[in-house]
Amino acid sequence: MIGIVGAGAFGTALAVTLARAGHEVRLWGRDAAAMTAARTVRAVPRLPDVPLSDGIMPTGDAADLSDCGTILLSVPMQSLATTLPALGLRPAHAVAACKGVDLTTLEGPTRVIARFWPDATPAILSGPSFAADIARGLPTALSLGCADASVGGRLQAALSTPTLRLYRTTDVAGVELGGALKNVVAIACGAAIGAGLGESARAALMTRGMAEIMRLATALGARRETLMGLSGLGDLALTCASPASRNFALGHALGRGETPPDATTEGTATAEAALRLGATHGVELPVTAATVGLVAGRLGVEDAVRALLERDLTTE
Prior knowledge:
The protein is of the alpha/beta class. It is built from 14 helices and 8 strands. The N and C termini lie far apart (49 Å).
């Protein structure tokens, strides 16, 4: 039996694909009334057109997940540290399905898990994926990072489905940071397209943004080959090129001078956290700095572009 914490689009999509593969799934959401309704209508508000099969039990009571040995955590990164202790659970394995860096502690999700659930083996699931694609059974590949190779292998076997293919690695930092930092670059790319700066500008931002991801992530212990894989380059390509990406959509609205959509965009907090990490480790992050200024309203798109173009010329 698999438990999923977070009945948003991604958590629900994971529940649907795992149930389709024959797993019994308990899907917890913080809105107890909405989860009670979901048991009746067999759907959740964030994916209203995706039916919940009989193998999925929606619930607003965390105690219903107490007998789940593996729990997937699909909640916003900035609320993970408050959600875990409130649940009162003690799973054997806890797999983060969220992307970002905690703005208060500068920790990735597996360190937050280790702090609040010390008896659980933490892991991280990340990569190029949209919830709607996973829920519809479209082919998707993700990275599964777990420092314990044996546990990682068991989780890979348990969580892979005919349409969701998982590749495992012990490079937890690479999976976490690739998935988190690409959201910052996606905001910048969205702003460039929204402002009408063109595809060449987007390509430049993606490339130089990837260079920043490499510099910071390797300084924090990530491996380059992981960052060039699904959870780094793969996720960057998807998020920076699709209007369906919430981070890209945020940047696109800012670039057009419009009110950003009302949706969780992990890249805003991650950009601030990344700047602090860069300062601590002596890593220069000009694209990230420009993105922070843009989101905070301190820079317009033209100012952000000028700040990047006026930097000293250097080698690649």
